[in-house]
Amino acid sequence: MKLASYKDGSRDGQLVVVSRDLGTAHYATGIATRLQQVLDDWNFLSPQLEDLSHALNHGKARHAFAFDPRQCMAPLPRAYQWADGSAYINHVELVRKARGAEMPESFYTDPLMYQGASDDLLGACDDIVCPSEEFGIDFESEVAVITGDVATGTSADEALEGIRLLLLANDVSLRQLIPAELAKGFGFFQSKPATAFSPVAATPDELGGAWQGGRVHLKLESVWNGKRVGLTDAGPEMTFHFGQLIAHIAKTRRVRAGSIVGSGTVSNKDWARGYSCIAEKRAIETIESGAPKTDFMKFGDTIRIEMKGEDGMSVFGAIEQKVAPLAR
Amino acid sequence: MKLASYKDGSRDGQLVVVSRDLGTAHYATGIATRLQQVLDDWNFLSPQLEDLSHALNHGKARHAFAFDPRQCMAPLPRAYQWADGSAYINHVELVRKARGAEMPESFYTDPLMYQGASDDLLGACDDIVCPSEEFGIDFESEVAVITGDVATGTSADEALEGIRLLLLANDVSLRQLIPAELAKGFGFFQSKPATAFSPVAATPDELGGAWQGGRVHLKLESVWNGKRVGLTDAGPEMTFHFGQLIAHIAKTRRVRAGSIVGSGTVSNKDWARGYSCIAEKRAIETIESGAPKTDFMKFGDTIRIEMKGEDGMSVFGAIEQKVAPLAR
Lengths: 328, 328
Fold this sequence. Notes:
2 copies of one chain form a homodimer. Chain A is an alpha+beta fold. Chain A has 2 domains: 2-70, no CATH class; 76-325, Fumarylacetoacetate hydrolase, domain 2. Chain A has helices at 35-40, 42-57, 89-98, 156-160, 178-183, 242-249, 278-289; strands at 2-6, 14-18, 24-27, 65-66, 72-73, 81-85, 113-116, 128-130, 137-138, 141-147, 163-170, 173-174, 196-197, 201-202, 211-212, 215-216, 219-224, 227-233, 259-262, 302-307, 319-325.
């Protein structure tokens, strides 16, 4: 089934079930009003939502309406955790190579993850609001999962059982703030403003055979200012699968229901497939010609991120954002 | 007023108002059931809670009962944000000096903060559960605030207006995991397990004149295995006040209601006042004699963290935790 949170003026939105083809939706009223509620009590509530989803997909839901992704908040408009990985090691290799940094051997066996802010997550069509273009505004097209409860010490394979929903993320980064921030030693902070998510979150079964071994074997399209800049494969080159990422978090603590875990920028060794973030394009330019040529995003720029299923249909709907200045 | 979240088998607990002397409590039923609800709608709900608090303090609340801190979850048992600072620059100086690292000039003007996990926050008397003693288990006695909504670009002074509640935190750290983790460059992750909070969160007016300039001018006591190891002053040496910490977060994004912001380990230049984390004691030993002598915490160890008001009474109740192995 596919779920979304419709804007209703509240902080958490109103839970809706969305049809497989993203054509229609139905309020989940009577079952649950907010997605977090469902994650808190998944075994009891999700079968009821599945029934509604089944009726909706067969045109039998009584109060269905046309689904409009512009009415969507993030599936979880605020979450108790947003932890993001760098699971596509090619991305890390490229960025480090461009700045002449060694690739530590441990990076191939131990996932790189950072703790992100989750108090303010953006809907798929919300503006990327930024105080200054000078911050180096970049998109990062990613795949993400939402988990149930996962116990401390859970293995990577077991952790896969904790995955409830899949979705897409635009982990917006402010590249010009990153070097100074990472030099301070405590990781990203101001350089990671609010992250945006796809209109819809889908249960793994919606992906059919494309969901395999904790990886999504589908292509992720990134369109910047109307031009396709990336069609990267999210599957085979994901060095650490989602179970491994979740197990990495759970090594020293519990992971609680409603935690969102990201893959990091989807990246492939074959440069012909393009890029899922501008930093990578600039890294390639630096490696090839000694300096980056492509600028970061400007006010008014647009970014569209989408993933098509094996049937050619959009799985999660598209993230479609515009960069905007902060209104003062 | 003082607020707490009582254990009731739910994920968020049941909101109670606690009397000023921490002697009695009263369910907030009829006003709000969860603390996050109050933070979401502060201007409407907090006056009603203030009325109840007033009645309780005057022995006129009809269904008051004896307050038991062991029944407390964290005031916010799960939060949408936990961002922790290193606002006592003396702590940073000590730790860096012990490992022969320079103190960057920017550290005196630009707060050092990290994004912590907030999906699983511990009650004041919950065990510190850890898979291994070898991880180097340490306490960190801190002051923290819970905010309302704060807009992007808010100044440090304005940000003070966004502070709703004050409380204490034990930001447990796994010291032996930190060097390798920070070397990866993305900040703390596995080295910061679940943080614990005081039984009670209090509105700033409860501190009287001790709450001044965004700092808490009171002493923070840390008692490790029954021995007082620290009685540090949380006031004058807080290099960055809470408004500055919140403004630091808000530089590139909104801060949403229910965000918890920590001060970092409370630390004073006068070593005679003791320490608020073992790492600092070990740093002093290293500076004095070339090597640390004090071990980190072992299973069975206890830590008690408390702050007394100008009237000598406990302001937030005590954090009293035991270190325990992970049950397999």
